[in-house]
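Handout, section 4.2: multi-component inputs.
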Amino acid sequence: MLNKQVYLDYTATTPVSPEVLEAMLPYFSEIYGNPSSVYSFSQKSRDAIEKARSQVAKALNADANEIYFTSSGTEADNWALKGVLERMRKAGKGDHLITTKIEHHAILHTANYLEKINNFKVTYLPVDEYGRVRLEDLKNAVTDKTVLVSIMFANNEVGTIEPVKEIGAFCRENKILFHTDAVQAAAHLDIDVKDLNIDLLSMSAHKMYGPKGIGALYIKSPLKFENFMHGGAQERGRRASTENIAGIVGFGAAMEILKSRLSEDRPRIAKLRDKLIKGILNKIPHAKLNGALGDERLPNNVNFSFIGVEGETLLLDLDMKGICASTGSACSSESLDPSHVLLALGLSHEMAHGSLRFTLGRYSTEDDIDYLLSVLPDIVARRRAMSPLWEDYLKQGADPGPISK
Amino acid sequence: MALNYSEKVMDHFANPRNVGEIENPDGVGEAGNPKCGDIMKIYLKVNDETQIIEDVKFKTFGCASAIASSSMATELIKGKSIQEAWDLTNSAVAEALDGLPPIKMHCSVLAEEAIHEALNDYRAKHGMEIIPVEHHEE
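Output:
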């Protein structure tokens, strides 16, 4: 059995950092009082939650009372869309949502649900070949019924960063609420909700070295919206359910640590990313980089399509070498369609099936990249040699050099 | 194991048998399409007198179960008559692999189809009747 493990799937999840774990530990068996109880023992739980709320708020330049803890980024996305749209329709303000074709399923499937079950109107904006929304398309999609725009801060598959500042300014000017799914972006970018005119923002702790099972929704005060979880009066009466204290504490700690390290981590990780991109382009012919370039891309994201091979086979070959990565191929999902994101970028089905995503993080090293680059070329070459598509591609007289952009 | 593949699937995926092409094959068949993410191509060498499949090779674009299904299917028809090869069903291929995840059963169907196409190609070249092949849309 191979002992080596190289984890290059930080976008899927991250390990809980030792400092975060340490901050969380007292809140399981020592400070366990229910924050809703009146005795002074529970004050410690309440204090811990409010401290974490301030830590998260500070990182976003928001006020603490604008942060609502949820069970996940997915819940935050569900709440943002359903809470705002239902409220707006009730108030007779409109029923139209504008989002994009490259959102995470937490947004897309919620939008589908609102459209199909609740008769809301939804527009799914296209993106350019790099995965960027065009402001012009957004402007053209707006109607007098448009009440919410939900566009992700950065894409989880190809790492493209959306023009959030321009979108925020446009929405504010036109009195349309702007929600952004920042589940990926918050782990890598400085986000200032005031400067960017963001009204609602979703986050998840486990993408930034915090625990799973805890997320947050920022809701600009004094925005009116419907509750999503009904029950007790937790989270100032907006989100029922006994607080996940240890999770909340972990989220706060993770966010504070992340912020303090960002100026150091971001360039270091981006350098590793660029080394990996360059290495693949140099060592593997006919590899196409998917997504945007340079500063318009998350510093940790590398996504390639390898003509003639299918992603799941590459993933399993890499797995046998101890490398964890991800693919947009249908073969790794429950459907037969490849990644909706890669198709929206204009990739053919076979190129989308042949995609691999490597995402780096705090604990990634040069050695990890060198090791990956030492095994990947052979893996791709071997699988291409048994592929009829690759054979056809060569017969068509494919360029000998890399065709990457 | 990733995706609950059986050890046999992983073995045939990691070390596929009969990979490649046959020069001047007696029959070639292809099944699947790039849209659904799987294409299989089967090459046959058939002894005209005995109608025994003397050699078989494959090339496959697709996931682990597609590659394993091709590898296993070629093993199962090698040395068999063209009639025996025709009778190979997709479930026999899947069974020989100790099963496939339900979502991956179509990979074994592709193997059956590609073999049928290759056998029909051989039959056509030898003035034999073409047997209609059922195509599975995905």
